[in-house]
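Hey team,

Filing this mostly as a record. A colleague (T.K.) asked me to run one chain through the structure pipeline before their review meeting, and I want the input and output archived in the tracker in case anyone asks later how it was produced. No errors, nothing strange. Just documentation.

Input sequence:
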Amino acid sequence: MSAIPAGPASSSRARAVWSVDPRTDERREQVGTEATPETVDAAVRAAHDARPALADRGVRAAFLRTVAEELEQARAELVAAADAETALGDVRLNGELTRTCYQLRSFADTVDEGSFLDVIISHPDADATPPVPDLRRYKIPLGVVAVYAASNFPFAFSVAGGDTASAFAAGCPVVVKAHPDHPATSELTAAAVRRAAAAHKVPEGVLGLVHGFDAGVALVEYPLVAAAGFTGSVRGGRALFDAAAARPVPIPFHGELGSLNPVLVTEAAAAERPEEIGAGLAGSMTMGVGQFCVKPGLVLAPAGAAGDRLVTALGQSLGEAGAGVMLDHRMRENFVAGVAERAQLPEVESPVRPGPGPDAHTVGPGFLTVPAAALARDGSAHALLLEECFGPVTVVARYTDAAEAEALLARLPGNLTATVHVSAPEAAGAEGDPGLLARLTPLAGRVLVNAWPTGVAVAPAQHHGGPYPATTSTSTSVGTTAAERWLRPVTYQNTPDALLPPELRESNPLGLPRVVDGRREG
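Output structure:
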């Protein structure tokens, strides 16, 4: 066996990691200390050494199901800690934890079923041009995956969230860089995962957990880390993505960075149900205090009377929404500064002004309006409006005709979602633009019709990703195909059956679904 590459060589003084209550901005407890280079080194090496324990698919599936059981048994403690650190509330957090457990079990089912291994066999064909040898292809795990937890989902996109669950399903150990907004929740979750590991004689190093900015940088540069998954800001994610690409051996980096999630409301839809669309938009953009990655941040609405009624309904609903607490005070300050800067731009109006709430810990929802033509101009002074603003605000761009809407859509960067609201006749194909969906599709990884993007179902057909900067890869982080991020294909040629991995043997001893000579079996 070759020597394991050395990790970071220098030591540094560990700094305290505090759990902070965003409702008061006061420290709750010291959770631990930021990881030193030696701590990162130990966590990655332990994860690397745990790889053989995940080689058996049966063990992986059972482990994933037991993680879900352990999380459910610790539900009360986990939800209490998460609420104290995020202010997201018991109802939201209980739902998110339930979603997380369902996601873990879904990946366990995927592991049992086995088609994610993508087994393909081509038997020899001497008559083909060129001749085909015996070829057998499947996918194998990459190795240790670094996961960067998200601020806004302390369960579903954090220590035991989709990145971790999909990595375990692929057979990859994980080292998580905890988010500073919920360190206590992260530690409690990690403990539950390790209890599940012990139940199946899987080393507890299968899940490492480190705290601190420097630890996050060290992880993506560590030689034994084979891939990384990130959910967060464009600035932070791009820095890590560039570091992953600059390594002597670059690694795959799936980063979810930022998204406007544009919504186009046709004139017919605005005329048909303006109050319904306005109220639905208010509910979607304020969900989780506007801190969902799929919050609709830009809405194209017609400039006429129908659009006016929609905007009025939006304002009325937002007036009833009330103030909320964001995940931390740094995000609150960024939100307040961001909406103030946007509101000062020329031609921008604030029918319901977003910004500070009634006290120093809250924010109030609102929206801005701007002519679509102004926002669509090249070199526009309104370019800031085409950047995500994290929090309960959306921009309503009023268009006078289809050409203005098209010009604005053409300026948009990549997104996680793109939504269109159409009228009943348009939905039936009797009226409207038949090419509209085709023009929206290049903008996003998920295209919705007459719905709102907040709420991402865990399902095999789900895709949570999109063109840059929505994500840095073409993969999804939600749904069972998310495991593909942590696998790579390998083909064996003219290999004696006895030497092949069991997954590729002629008799198919594991009963896997596979494609043989172009025909699907199982």
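Quick notes for T.K.: Residues 95 and 462 are 19 Å apart (CA to CA). The longest strand covers residues 26-33.
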